[in-house]
């Protein structure tokens, strides 16, 4: 809602990325099978916030590497905003604190989406054994960012004693707008196309979440300490996108060593308001 006036920090950022291939030379990218798959990649991603339009093919990854790291933010942190709650205070409390950036004490940035955007061959996106879940609890969506595979069922829950109204904004998928009173335990939705879908609640304007729909397994959401890990990656060089709802997207070229752990330390810093 307009009253929220979510603060945008702009896309001018500095990304300093140190790359250390643990246990070996970063140029050791494994066998020919993996390299031939990587060489067929386009030069870069399509730049549309991580969407994969087509072309991803699955293969049996041998000696996959792991990309592991932490995303830190070292710029000016926006002030916390307080929203006074006037309705549904029994569920929402008297006020809500809004943090545009959730940053741990040592600078780790939570809720950033880390993706290999230009990978064209790799492991199959396994059918999940359980649905992705987006709960509404205390008039907050939790988690704030949830990954879901294409066509994976996303269960939207309401753990509050008040009604919510789930309203998604999608571009390539169909948006929906559903009221969810406490009597409706869950709403099941799925998305056939990979994109980042925003979810809001029309009743409580501060409620916001992202359903990040992915069509390959090489994506992760940073945890509360900014950490992430992406495993079973075919050895090779890729474009790594780091996306945050407030900071926008930044890309970095990374080389993943086959059968090894490649550690990354990614620093994001705001350079303009
Ligand atoms: Cu709500």
TrEMBL record:
<protein>
    <recommendedName>
        <fullName>Rhamnogalacturonan lyase domain-containing protein</fullName>
    </recommendedName>
</protein>
<dbReference type="InterPro" id="IPR008969">
    <property type="entry name" value="CarboxyPept-like_regulatory"/>
</dbReference>
<dbReference type="InterPro" id="IPR008972">
    <property type="entry name" value="Cupredoxin"/>
</dbReference>
<feature type="region of interest" description="Disordered">
    <location>
        <begin position="38"/>
        <end position="57"/>
    </location>
</feature>
<dbReference type="Pfam" id="PF13620">
    <property type="entry name" value="CarboxypepD_reg"/>
</dbReference>
